[in-house]
């Protein structure tokens, strides 16, 4: 089986933190808290160089999947991938429901909502995010990857419409 890697960022607008994390079939990255705006330069210096590149080097084979966000598609980011020989999984714009990372973020969010009282500060939320991210069993992530054929079939059967995932 291919050691796929799915990466994404997640924003909590209430407390204003941006969190990025990646999942693979056998492992996951640490999550990264992004201060400020995630522009292409921050994406490279805070995510790609310190986290993604070392993570992918540790895998025998991997495809890197990201969204078509503006900061992901700039020439400087595309050059980073070429220079570091990172193979990208082509990803259709506006198709996040197919990505297993969305379900991962839902599992993290569910864990966060079970904790009371809610986090009062960005630092407190960050600590809880790290704990929730780490607490998701890897078997749950594997089941997300294994669901991909069903996800794709559901989208096809709905002529590209909502798939229920």
Can you walk through the features of this model?
It comes from Trichonephila clavipes (Golden silk orbweaver). With 165 residues, the protein is an alpha+beta fold. It contains six helices and four strands, in the order E-E-E-H-E-H-H-H-H-H. A four-stranded mixed β-sheet has the order 3-2-1-4, sandwiched between helices. The longest helix is centred in the N-terminal third of the chain and has 18 residues, at 40-57. The protein is globular and about 40 Å long. The protein starts with a strand and ends in an 8-residue tail after the last helix. 21% of the residues are buried.
Topology, pairings included?
Elements: E1 5-12, E2 17-24, E3 32-34, H1 40-57, E4 64-65, H2 75-83, H3 100-113, H4 122-135, H5 138-146, H6 148-157
Parallel strand pairs: 1-4
Antiparallel strand pairs: 1-2, 2-3
Helix pairs in contact: 3-4, 3-5
Strand order of the largest sheet: 3-2-1-4
- Any idea what the radius of gyration is? 16 Å
Helical content band? 40-55%
* SSE topology string: EEEHEHHHHH
Number of helices: 6
Q: Please give the largest β-sheet.
A: 4 strands, mixed
Kindly report the average pLDDT value.
85
Stretches where pLDDT falls below 50 for ≥5 residues? 1-13
Structural class: alpha+beta
Shape: globular
Number of DSSP strands? 4
What gap, in angstroms, lies between the N and C termini? Answer: 23 Å
Beta-strand content bin = 5-15%
Oligomerization state of this entry? single chain
């Amino acid at each position: 089986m291919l050691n796929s890697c799915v990466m994404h960022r997640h924003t909590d607008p209430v407390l204003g933190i941006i969190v990025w994390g990646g999942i693979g079939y056998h492992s996951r990255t640490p999550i990264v808290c992004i201060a400020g705006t995630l522009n292409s330069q921050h994406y490279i210096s805070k995510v790609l160089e310190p986290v993604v590149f070392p993570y992918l080097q540790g895998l025998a084979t991997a495809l890197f999947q990201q969204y078509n966000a503006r900061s992901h598609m700039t020439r400087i980011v595309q050059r980073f991938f070429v220079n570091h020989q990172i193979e990208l999984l082509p990803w259709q714009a506006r198709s996040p429901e197919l990505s297993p990372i969305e379900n991962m973020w839902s599992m993290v969010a569910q864990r966060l909502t079970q904790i009371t009282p809610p986090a009062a500060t960005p630092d407190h939320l960050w600590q809880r995010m790290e704990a929730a991210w780490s607490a998701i069993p890897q078997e749950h992530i594997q089941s997300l990857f294994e669901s991909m054929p069903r996800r794709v079939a559901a989208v096809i059967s709905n002529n590209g419409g909502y798939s229920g995932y």
